[in-house]
Every structure is written in C-alpha cells, then in structure tokens.
Amino acid sequence: MLLRFRRIRRCQFLQLMTTCLVLSVVMVCWEQLNTNVVSHIKSYSYRYLINQFMDINKSFTIPREEARRFSDFHYLLDHPDKCTGQDVLLLLFVKSSPNNIERRHAIRSTWGNEAYIQKSLGVTVKVLFALGAPFTNKDKPMWSDTSELGFQKQLIFEDQLYGDIIQQDFLDTFHNLTLKLIMQFHWMHSRCAHARFLMTADDDIFVHMPNLVSYLQDVSNRGVTQFWIGRVHRGAPPIRRKDSKYYMSFDMYRWISYPDYTAGAGYVISSDVADKVYQATLTMNASLYIDDVFMGICANAIGVTPQDHFFFSGEGKALYHPCIYDKMMTSHGHVEDIHGLWKAATHPQVKRGSSGVFGRLYCTAVKMALLCKPYYLNTYPCKAAFL
Q1: Based on the domain organization, do 70 and 172 belong to the same domain?
Q2: Percent of the chain with pLDDT over 70
Q3: What is the first-listed, main subcellular location in coarse terms (predicted)?
C-alpha cells in the first residue's frame, strides 16, 4: 500500500513538472503564439461560430457622394473602344507599376499575347495593364512635375506601340492598390461590360492561357453565374504587427477575421459578379488599402462566395514539372523565367505525356510526391494531385 502511494506521488510530481515546463515554454513563446496561433483560432471562431459579417457591411457603407472620391480620377491613358464590337471571353487586367516595363514586355510576348490567343485558341481575350501615376515623392505625381515628364512620356510611347495601358492620375503606390482595383471594375462597367469574365492579376504572375481559356469556355457554355475562383483565404485574421507590409489598424478594421477572399495574385469572376461588385464600390469606403481583402468585403456585401480552384497558386510559385503544367492555371513570382516557363508549359508533349491510363497514373504519382508535403507549400494543395 505504501509502495502504491509513493508511485502515485511520483506520477503527480512528474505531471506537475511537465505542466510547469510546458507553461514556461508557452510564456517564453507567448508573443509569437499570440500573433500567429491565437489570432488564427480567434479568427476561425469568429468566422464559423459568430459569422456576423453584416456589421462589416454596415461599417464600410458610405454615401455615394463620399464614395465618389475613390473613383473620380482622370484617365491619363485610356482605350474606350478596346472591346467594341467583339465577343470578349475574358477581360484580363494586369496590375503593374509604371517602372515595370520589362515585366509588361514579357507578358505581351508570352501568355498575354492577344494575337496568339486569337489565332491558336480561337477566342478574344483583352489584356490590359492597370497603372496609376508615377511619382517623385509621396505627395507629387511625376506626370505633374515638369522635370520628370520624360517618364510619363515613356509610358505614352509604350502605350502608342501596344495600346494596352489604362492609367489614372492617382499615385501608383502599394497603399493605392484598392483604387487600382476600383478602376478595373469601373472601366469594365463603362467600356467592356459584355465580356463574359474578368480576371485581375499581378505583373509577376504566369497564366497558362490555353488551360484557362478551355476552362472558362466550359464554364461559359454551362451558363454558370455567381462565379468567383482563385486561391481562397478563409478565416484570415488581420495582421496587427506594425512592421508588416499588410498591417491593419483597429481603427481601419476592428474585427478579428476578414470575410473570405481570393489571393490578389490572380482570380477570375463572371460578368454578373463584376457588375455587382461595381455597384457595391459606389457606396463602399475604399480607404482599406489591401485590395484583395476589399474585394472580399464587397463580395460579402453582395452575397458572393469565392470558390477554390486548386491550380490557382495564390502567392506561391508552382513547381516545374510537365505533370504540373498539364492542369496549371496560375503561378506567382515569375519574372526572369517567364519565357522559359511559357515554352515548357505550353509544349505539345505536356498533354501527350499526361494522356491515357498510364500517363494519368504517372502524373498522379508525380503530383503526390511534389505536392503532398508535410509542410506548407503555398502553391497547389495535395488535393490537386488527384485531379
């Protein structure tokens, strides 16, 4: 009896020591846990248990006269007849900065080549670059500075060559990305409303245009509406660290979770959704500068929910392999390698190698090895291996 009592006391002592050790580790790491784990737990709890995003809608709704200041900018470069008289499958806006000339050239010569798309894929896709005004300092647009007019002249010359730049006179900065997003919806509404789909993308993204066109043709033929696909962020918490690029103050956004939204690197919506989002922007406070989150707020207000497409990579770069290219839609983070990737991803051998029973089995095994990792890749999920 005495031996059993001593064993019990020893077990209790070990439990106490283990508990103290765990608590010590938690106390040491609390700051990191609080900003990462705890914030995500709170965010998911809010989304799934409370889910009162109606308060967000009310908070961001403002009078039309006040909302007009987020869209009432003058066009420096415009092409109002770009879509006139054409059956446009996809209007694709690439968010670009004025100085990213080489990126725009690379896109024009690869996946964004409208002539190639028309000739090889048999559809009309309009690719436009959305820009704000270049600047010399945070207060003065470059186009208004006579000493720096040369830079704007370069953009005018570039646009005269290619006819694909849409530019307004707000400053082209990270904190004005929401203004650039609003510009896209307003331009489509007034100049290309008949396009069946709208896509917005970064200028370091790779789009597998043959795969995307084939997919959107199928969606269009099925008459799908309320369509919004991309890499979906669900239950994402605002980042409260002031040293972060995506810092969100409580004054700007006081809730612990964002509405569902797709990564701004690239997503596609149908024309009916584009029109509803346009209507929402007419009464929305667009001072929130994270454009993909603002899109989520607008979509939440109109009752549209994003859907995951497993081959939209979000913020990650897809792995280089023909079996990945076979289903690829987008991949993020491509600049120097875009020409090589375009050549490899669209090579006829890609489709031949993944066809047939053995080809499909082989590619499934390869994708499982590449995508089903025990750590987070931020590209395509493991589920994509089985598609």
Answers
A1: yes
A2: 82
A3: Golgi
Q: Mean pLDDT throughout 172-201?
A: 97
Residue 53 lies in a domain: no
CA atoms of 351 and 345, how far apart (whole Å): 10
The pairing of strands 205-207 and 307-308 is: unpaired
| CA distances to 65, 98, 108, 152, 286 from 178, in Å | 18, 17, 24, 22, 7
As a whole number of Å, the CA-based R_g of the chain is 25
List residues bridging with 232 in a β-sheet. 262
Domain, as residue range, for 275: 65-308
Length of the chain in terms of residues written: 387
Q: How far apart are CA 186 and CA 275, in angstroms?
A: 9
- What would the pLDDT profile of 224-259 be if each residue is shown by its tens digit? 999 999 999 988 889 999 999 999 999 999 888 899
Domain count, the chain: 3
Can you give the pTM of this predicted structure? 0.85
